[in-house]
């Protein structure tokens, strides 16, 4: 087995789902170092194998509340270079905001939104390499329930589309391809978004993450 394969640990109490995901990951070129059915097991696995990436559900035994999220926080604290993907059937953005606010090696996807293997594999690779990915459906849900003083009200409909795609972790070229516009136009939209939302920062990537997190936090 090639040493440059991304090493993954999985945690989900649904055995059939977990086994299916493990099989898919193996066929896609990843090395699955272990599987777990609860938060305690996944912490033991991570401490033993030090995987590059951990995929875990938010709600797991015994109470099926936020056990997976709590485990993710511990993993991030003990092993900050380990990527974390919250793969859940539930929207728990508020609870996950602290983890997402770290801005690197973290992602949050809804299981129902994973419809393409290639896109999912690309997402895993992006997180393992230091990126941050948030399911755009979570962004859109929060847009619909935003507060009156929501900073997103300052954005045009097109800028909200661009920001939603930014949340997916897409580059400017990827956004341009998705929206059928030029990369230069995307750059102008991104600049406008950061300006309107008054996002300051020393690095463009960091500013993009802050913009996405502001988007998610707008209630």
UniProtKB/TrEMBL annotation:
4-aspartylphosphate: residues bearing it: 57
Keywords: DNA-binding, Phosphoprotein, Transcription, Transcription regulation
Coiled coil segments of this chain: none
Domain Response regulatory: 7-126
Domain HTH luxR-type residues, every copy: 148-219
Phosphoprotein keyword on record: yes
Top-level taxon in the UniProt lineage: Bacteria
Entries under PANTHER family matching the protein: TRANSCRIPTIONAL REGULATORY PROTEIN NARL-RELATED, TWO-COMPONENT RESPONSE REGULATOR
Record's protein name: Response regulator transcription factor
């Amino acid at each position: 087995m090639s040493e440059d394969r991304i090493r993954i640990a999985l945690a989900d109490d649904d055995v059939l789902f977990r086994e299916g995901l493990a099989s898919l990951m193996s066929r896609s070129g990843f090395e699955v170092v272990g599987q777990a059915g609860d938060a305690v097991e996944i912490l033991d696995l991570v401490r033993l194998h030090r995987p590059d990436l951990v995929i875990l559900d938010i709600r797991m035994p015994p109470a099926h509340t936020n056990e997976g999220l709590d485990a993710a926080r511990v993993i991030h604290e003990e092993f900050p270079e380990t990527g974390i993907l919250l793969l859940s059937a539930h929207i728990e953005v508020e609870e996950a905001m602290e983890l997402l606010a770290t801005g690197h090696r973290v992602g949050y996807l809804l299981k129902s939104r994973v419809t393409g293997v290639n896109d999912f594999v690309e997402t895993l690779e992006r997180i393992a390499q230091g990126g941050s990915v948030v399911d755009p459906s979570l962004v859109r849900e929060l847009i619909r329930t935003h507060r009156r003083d929501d900073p997103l009200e300052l954005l045009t409909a097109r800028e909200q589309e661009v920001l939603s795609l930014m949340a997916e972790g897409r580059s400017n070229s990827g956004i341009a391809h998705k929206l059928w516009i030029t990369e230069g136009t995307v750059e102008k939209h991104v600049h406008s978004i950061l300006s309107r939302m008054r996002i300051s920062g020393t690095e463009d990537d960091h500013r993009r993450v802050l913009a996405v997190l502001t988007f998610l936090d707008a209630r």
